[in-house]
Amino acid sequence: MSDALTPQDTLDIASATTRRARSAPARPRWVPSVGALLCFGFFFLIGDAIDMPIDRTITIRGVAGIVVTLAFGAFMTWVLREWRNGGVVPRSLAEQPVQRWKRAALGGLPPFVAVTLLDDTACAVIMGAWMWFQLTQPRAA
Asked: pLDDT (tens digit, 9 = 90+) per residue, 8-23?
């Protein structure tokens, strides 16, 4: 006996997966905003703590930055888990049907410019906006 799927079986599996992804509950509207704020806080607090000499205020900011970093990691883990449980797996950049320069411009240029050329506040604002943009993009099944 052959374990190969027939074309009809393949179509049935694909349509069932698509139906499951489309019937998944929409993510809450607050997710992109919270992701952007956590990303902003992470870059602002950690960047601020790294640039200044060590004293009590910077230590407090550094600890707050570590807490925000852990919260951001937990939040993004939750977001990815919700997507996967809803039947939507985020596409990797290699699977997206766009030209390579567009992918690099959207995915890599804002973080590169923010981290290398700007101060901490501008970097945090750009990275927060970039995270908001990434979280508002629709995910395909």
From this structure: 888 888 888 777 767 6
Gyration radius of the chain over CA positions = 20
Q: Can you tell me the distance from the alpha carbon of 74 to that of 80, in angstroms, rounded to the nearest whole number?
A: 10
- The residue to which tokens 């970093």 are assigned: 69
Name residue 89's amino acid.
V
pTM for this one? 0.62
User: What are the extents of the domains in the chain?
Assistant: 31-136
What is the DSSP track for the chain? ---PPPHHHHHHHHHHHHHHHHHSPPPPTTHHHHHHHHHHHHHHHHHHHHHS--SHHHHHHHHHHHHHHHHHHHHHHHHHHHHHHTT--PPPGGGS-S-HHHHHHHHTHHHHHHHHHS-HHHHHHHHHHHHHHHHHS----
CA 19/CA 97 separation, integer angstroms: 22
